[in-house]
Structures are given as C-alpha cells and as structure tokens.
Amino acid sequence: MVKGANVGLAALSEDVGSVMVSLGWSSATGEGDADVSVLLLDGAGKVRSDVDFCFYNNPVAGNGSVQLLGKTPTADGSEDRISFDLDAVPEEIDKVVVAASRYGGSRFGELDDLRLTLADSAGDGLVRFAVEEADEVSAVIFGELYRRSGEWKFRAVGQGYASGLAGLATDYGVDIDDDAAEEDAREQGEQEPERDQGQGQGYAEEAPLPEPAGQPAAPARVPAQATGARADDASAAPAQDGPAAPPKPARRPRTAKKKVTLPRTARKSLADNESWRSARLFPVSALKSDRERETRATSVVLSVMAQVPEFGRRLTAGFGAPAGRMETFTEVTLPHGESPRRPDGVVRVERAGKLWTALVETKTNGNALKPDQVQAYMDIAARRGYEAVITLSNDVALDGSPLVDVRIDGRRKHKVALWHLSWAEVVHQAQMLIRHEGVGNAAHAWLLQELLHYLQHENSGCHGFQNMGAAWVPVRRGIDDETLCQGDARALEVIENWERLVRQVCLRLGGELGQKVLPVQRARRGSDPGVRRAELADHLCEQGRLNAEIRIEGTPGVLAITADLRTGKLRTSIEVPSAEPGYPLSRVKRLIRRLAEAPADLHIETLVDGPGAGPRGTLERLRPEPADIVPKDGAQITGFRLSLFKGMGSGRGSAETGFIRSVDEAVDRFHAQVVAQVEAPAPRRSRSEEPTG
C-alpha cells in the first residue's frame, strides 16, 4: 500500500474477525529499537480514558480486544506483533491507531525498512505498507483500523511526530504529566518543543491524515509517574554531578490496572525438615511413560489456560484466536475415515456467538512430531470448519524450516492455520505473568506457579530444546580432523539447532529478567532464511565456530556468544561504549570500579577509533594497574569489549557435560556477573575528586 490508501479487510479475506498487525524495522548494528503503542478512539477522535492507551505498561486494552504480544524473532530480525480481535472491539470505538516511538534522543531516521504488515487469523498476509521519510521524528503513526458502514477498513498513515510519544498521546486525549515531560526534554539538553498548529487540539475530523510534524524536537516520553517506571525513562537516568533533584510527586495514579505478582523469595517453610515435600496441585512423581507425560502435560496446560484468562489469551492471541470465553478439552474423539482420531486436546473460544476452535497435538521428552498425525488433524479441522491446529513440543520452530511438512488442499474454501508452541515458550509466558506483569488475582498467580513448578520438574518431559541432533558429534569430529567440507548437510543441521538453542536462551533469560531478549539477525532484510543458514554452515566448516548475538533490553550493547569447536571454548562478550567525558585513564578507572564484583578472569579490551586493536588484559591484573589498557599512542577510546571464557560441553544433550547446559551456564554467568554491573554506571565523583591521569 501507499501512504494515504485504504482498503476494506473483508475484501481481502474471510478470516478477518481477528487480525495480526506486525511492525518491523532494521538497523545496521542490530541494536535499534522502538516501543509500540495503540490508541482506541471514540467518534470524537479521542480515547475514552487512559485505559484506551495500550503500551508497554498497559499491554491489553479494549476488554482484551487489543493485546501487545511483544517481539517475535523472524528470519531476518524481529517484529513487534499486536493482536486485534475486531469482533470484540467495544462499540464506542470507531478507530484504532497503531504507532511506535523511540526514546533517549533517538530518531526513526536511524532505522531502516520501517514497515507494517497485516495478516488474517489463518496467518496469511493481507497488507504491507512501507513507511518513508521519517528521518527526524521520534514517533510514527504507521496505520489505523477504522469502521465504515459496519465494516473494518485499514488506512496506511505513515505520519511522524517530532514531539515524540508524549505529543502523539496528548493529541488523542491521553493525560500526560506536563512537568515530567518538560523535565525529560531538559535532560535531553533541548527546549520544550512548540506544538504545530493543529496539534494539541486534535485533528479536524474531515482530514484523512494528521498534519505533518514541525521542526525536530526532543522526544518526551510518557512519564513514570503516570505509567510506571521504565529503565530507559528520564526518571531512571543516572544522576549527574552535584546533588540530585528531589523527585516530583505523582500527579495522578498509574493508568495500568494493579495486578498480582508472586515474590521471588519464598516464605519460610513450616516443615520440620527438608525431607517434607509440599503438596502440589499437579504431581509428577507417578509419571512413568511418555504417553503419561503427554497426557498429563496437555491436561495441566489446557486447564490453566481456561482458568487464567491472561495466560490463555497470551498463548492463543498470536494464533488468531479472539478474546472471549475459553474452554479446553482433552482426549476428544473425532471421526476420520475408518479409524477415528484422538487429538491430545481441543481449545475453543466463544465470542459474540462465534466459535474459534484449535486441535492440539502434544509431544514431550524430546519426542518428534509425526507428520501423518499432524496431517490427519489438519484434514479433520478443514472438514469440520475449525480454524487451527497447534503443535506443542520441546522443539523450537524456525522460519523457513517447518517442523512437519503438511499438504494443504487448495480446493478447500476453509483455511486451517498450523501453529507451533515450544514448552520453553509456555514457561516463558508463565514467568512473565507471575513474576513481572501480573495477573488478575492471587489464585490465578498460584495456579501459574503450580504450572511452572510442574513444567520445570525433571520428570515432566517439558524442558524445551535439549538435543543438538545426530549430526552434532560427526560435525565436531569433522572439524577436529579437518574433513568437514562445505555443503555438508550435517553442518546445516547443526546451524539450525544452534539457532533453536539461541532462541530458547532468549526465552529463558527474558522470563527471568522480565525484559525483551531477542536474537540479533544481521542478514539483509527479506533474504531467504535457507540461504542465510547455508552460508553460516559453510562458515562453520571453514572456521569451526558457531556465532550468535542477543540483545537484552536496557543493556548498553549486544551480548555475543561464540562456540569454538576447535578449541572447545565458549566465549561470551559485550562491547560497552565509552561516551563519558574525562581523561582516558579516568574512563578506564570508572569502568573498573563498576566491575568491582566481576570475576577476576574477565578479559577487557580497549576499543579505539581507527584501524588496529587496543590493549587488553584481565581484570585481576588491571585492578592495581588500570593504565595498562590506556592506548600508548594517544588513540581515542571508543569503548571496551568485556569477555569471559568457559569450557564447552561435548555431549549433544543437556546433561551436566552437554553442550546445551554449558551454553546456558555461560550466558547466565556472564549476565549476572558482568552485564548486570555495567547496565547502571556507578556513582560519579565530584570534579575535585576526579583523578588527573
């Protein structure tokens, strides 16, 4: 679509009762990011109240009809996805605006390939819109969904706001704390921007598109007092020299509803001794066979989905399910020729008299999905008018590399979508809700805690990706004796499983931290994932190394992971920029003070402007002699590379000596002992105390 164009969704597909909107962008470094927000507007073009403003602190709006699903890895990066149940949007809402904003002085001109895509409930793409000329703005309206004569239509907007998220939200009636916005602008070192004519009062109803933004100005984010603190907000910025300004009192309460989360530390047990085991809602001690594990796991997950609306909605919204009353079933018998089939489960959602149904096929303990089973369920779903088949296993799906190949009969009018969930993703969503985002009441939080305990128990069989595959040992041997040739299919299998492992590491770490953790893909936007993996497989054959990068929200750089199969070493590293003022030695000393609790074997390398490498050394040696990593030739310091090395597991599984376990431990150690210390700078000295070296 082009800017300003509109289209009726019903003319594009029959499955538009619920749709998925994805916002995407790319950056040369892989670090550029933005926050997605959605505004639900009434006939006057305003939000009814602040709860109609859907953003990172209020991810669900419109009675569950709009839900931010967060970032999802794709073949060439990641996308922010938003689920819209259009049949459930309140009648008072005439228009839904989809936008994104940047923060910390960043502009959209620093990102490439800004785009919006819209897909129907079967996952088929219907609309693609590329946003252009957004160089000097910090907020962009990508598009809007609106009603006309009882039908939903989409308009491609592509309009920028120089005044950032605060300016955009204010124009649509969201209550913004002006004092906090002004303070945010001052911390950016710029004046509070003057609003263009037409902004601040809303746009004229007859205008199809908003008026253009004026001159560039500092982005003013929605303040922490109004919406809850965020690590990158002005209120969370490190203190400057001199006494800190007293915090401003809150002007109004949070817009997000208060939710229940569970404390990280358990209360003191009332047991006489450690041998007493707490009674569990979902016991695992009696599980003996794979069939029992599959049956129990399916029943446990589906029952909690039906009883905890936030959890059920979180798992099904990405599959096109509406927001409504959910019921779940197990061991349902369905006719299929001469031999009836019994899928492991059925999920059914009812909204406004309409039903959405998905068949569920479950595997545990590393068992692979069977193509003939999945094909049979796809055929049954098509005949019965069901919307989806969901597979659930320890495996992790990759773009361009399906777990099972199914045949789609193009002659059938009714389309059935095939979706996959990993047990690691189920655990991630449960952790996000009970530890970070919260659920409706304490009973729901307890149910999720019991589910989490069950899934993480060693006997459940629901442990996510745990096997590097049959090709792992032959590839390692081929690299050792230099007999592995480019084009070997076994190397490609290792690359695919390495990508699955990295995605699972992101899910696990993100669930523990409550932050976005995503793999970084530096491939060209739109490139074929199969071609990209083939190139990586050739590099593996040539160099003997597996490389990956993950971006953790709120950290100063990208965490890099390198597994050197020749030396048997794992390297985790991060590049920390050094933009602070001061003499080179002063900057080095500040870094070492921030790493006071880091391991002594941490390697520090100075990054310099221009060709050549800077000096390096271990933290143990640099603590008494920090000047050793100051460039002797006067080269300008641009940053520091921090690295830890660890022995690599040799086995293909997740046992104590396995490769997967060693990667998990290396990432956990590096984040806890290094990354967490450089996220927030240590308190700065006054100028009179600053060394003069």
Topology of this structure?
Elements: E1 6-8, E2 18-26, E3 35-41, E4 53-54, E5 60-61, E6 66-74, E7 77-85, E8 95-101, E9 112-119, E10 125-130, E11 139-148, E12 151-161, H1 164-171, H2 178-187, H3 224-227, H4 290-307, H5 309-316, E13 325-330, E14 345-351, E15 354-362, H6 371-384, E16 388-393, E17 417-422, H7 423-437, H8 442-456, H9 472-480, H10 489-513, E18 517-519, H11 529-543, E19 545-552, E20 558-564, E21 569-577, H12 584-594, E22 603-608, E23 616-618, H13 619-622, E24 637-647, H14 659-678
Parallel strand pairs: 15-16, 16-17
Antiparallel strand pairs: 1-12, 2-7, 2-9, 3-4, 3-8, 5-6, 6-7, 8-11, 9-10, 11-12, 13-14, 14-15, 18-19, 19-20, 20-21, 21-24, 22-23, 22-24
Helix pairs in contact: 4-5, 4-8, 5-7, 7-8, 7-10, 10-11
